[in-house]
Design a protein that fits this description.
- The protein is mainly α.
- The protein contains 10 helices and 5 strands; from the N terminus they run H-H-H-H-H-H-E-E-H-H-H-E-H-E-E.
- The chain has a 3-stranded antiparallel sheet with strand order 3-4-5. It has a two-stranded antiparallel sheet with strand order 1-2.
- The longest helix has 62 residues.
- The chain is elongated, with a radius of gyration of 38 Å.
- The C terminus is likely disordered.
Length: 400
Amino acid sequence: MPHLKEVGDALGVLTICLVALLVLLGLFCILYLVYFHARIRGQGYNQLGYFSGPWIIRITFILFAIWWGIGEVLRLSLLRRDGRLLNALSWKWQETVCKCYIVSNLGFAEPCLFLIVVFLLRASLQKSVTLNRKWNGKTAAYVLLFCIPVFVLQLIVISIGPKFNKESDVHKLPHYFTRAASPKTKDDGDIALCTYPLLSTICLGLFATILTCYLFWLGRRILHLVINKGLQKRVYTLILSVSGFLPLRVVLLGLSVLCTPGGLVYEILAFLGFLSLLCCAGVGICTLVYFPVADSLALRKLQRDIEARQRVSDDQHNDTISLIANQSLPGGSIATSPGRNSAASTKRGSISFRTMDKDDTSGAFVELSLFSPSQHSSPPDSPQLLGWPMLPPAKRVPVS
């Protein structure tokens, strides 16, 4: 069986690699969003402005995910095993880093991440709100407002909670309720191991419960409106990932207080808790950022192809009309009558035919006004028809 410190270091290296992938994915999606927004505004595709409306909130979601990932890296004891860094940071400062990690990630980054998911899903039910320029600012303000209670609770647990662990206090709480860093061990020297206070995990669990219930209700309304199977799968994936991975993280962090900090079981539980939220953040970035932008760009390309096909169809239609206008019908030959070969007659789109008898003598003209029939396209005494029968041979009027 490998040494416990080696397993913890391996999980720490794997955590750093996964966070690096998350950062690369986030930066790529940010550039993709900026490119999409610039193309929409530059080329005047107003119809796609609805999909480009919440681009600032999407970027904010990615930035919160990156912030959370960096916090998960900073909590690792692997980075503090360097001798120079360990000498620069006393155990007290390392404990402060662990406390800041709890307040930053569990009290701010994670609640903001899931609140943004809720607001983006809620915006899909409102057809015109995201077109408003003030929507992004209002949404950011609401996210911060709803995050304040969780942030304040985490701050109280970290700052005031340790005071209840004093020996003289009658209502003494067990240390794992408020402890953000475990004391130094024999093997680790002066390294502080970041832990998850049980009260902080309970606060996050209450928030996750309320958010999950609201998300199920919101997702049910969205699924009633979605008729595309691909979009239905995306909504199902997003709702199940948020409603599944967030409670799973809370359970894993809650179980970690039963294990010795730095031990094998503790490191596995902490890594699985990190992995669950990493999967949730990755699914959120792909579902709420990448796929909508990719679909919108594909829709823009489809619109451009339709316009090109329409132009080709119009050209073919004009060529067909030109061919009909210069081709004779069976039993007749095209002829031009005096005064009918003018630009005005061509503009009206009328065609004159001369019928031929058996002795090849010329007959009368019959005019067919194909496109824009008017009263000037035929003799005054003729009926207003596209074509009419010729007079009998005995009554035929000679044509001058």
